[in-house]
Amino acid sequence: MFVQNEMAEYILASAGAAFWIVTIIPQIVKSYKTKSTEGLSPWLMALWASSSLFFGSYVIAEKLNVAIQVQPHAFGTLCMVSWAQCCYYSRHWSAREAAGTLLAIMAIAGAFETTSIFSLWYGQLKGTEVPLLFYGYFSTALTIVGFIPQFYEIYRLRQVKGISLILFCVDITGGTLSAFALFFREELDIVALITYLGVASLDLLIIVLYFTLGHSDAPPHSISNLPPASGPRSRLSMLQTQGAQMEVQADSPVSSKWALTPSTGTLVEGFTPMTGRSEKRFFP
After folding, report:
1. In angstroms, what is the C-alpha Rg of the chain?
2. What is the mean pLDDT of residues 29-41?
3. Does the record's keyword annotation contain Nucleotide-binding (predicted)?
């Protein structure tokens, strides 16, 4: 039993929700500016969005603080926007395909959550809390599992790349404040507490890896001394480089610019004026 203080709960929960609502925005801005999502796992965003769907249903059914009810919906929506960016920049979907898929998924998610909320309330009226607990624990599991593909990306690249450090700093702050808010309720919500502190701990681990393994956030540098391309198709020599990304401009039929990833020796992101969009190509 805890000392109930509605004002303290409201202030802390509102502050935590405010941080969490904007958590994904730095990542969206970073991906837009760099025109790349390399190093950011789309599964991280997809699983976080799925987790928010279940957690949103849970917090509404549990009648938690209004600010906490708003948070998972805003967070999940922004996660889906970041996922759509991954599809556009890394999987080379067209803008129409990415936006159309995003809107379709959000419509399905809205229908699913509405049905879930009324179903959970119906279960409570019948005296069972099992469906409600399932939604709570399952959302926690999805949130934690979402970190696994991101850690794999870090392991594969041997560095923290493509993700916004601000995202994880803001996420930790929001989770900590929301966790403190739970202690001012009459009854502690264990599921919510595990979710908040678990995510904050994994966020902190990524920040530690950011500084221990290194990171690659430097802008491209220009190289102009490449030999001209020949033949109907442009051929670019693989460059052995160290340090930051390097921008390669070759004389090709479409005057493309491509960015070279030194760690893998693979030409990744490029902009082709002929098509008017960014693309990714791999050269042997």
Report:
1. 22
2. 92
3. no
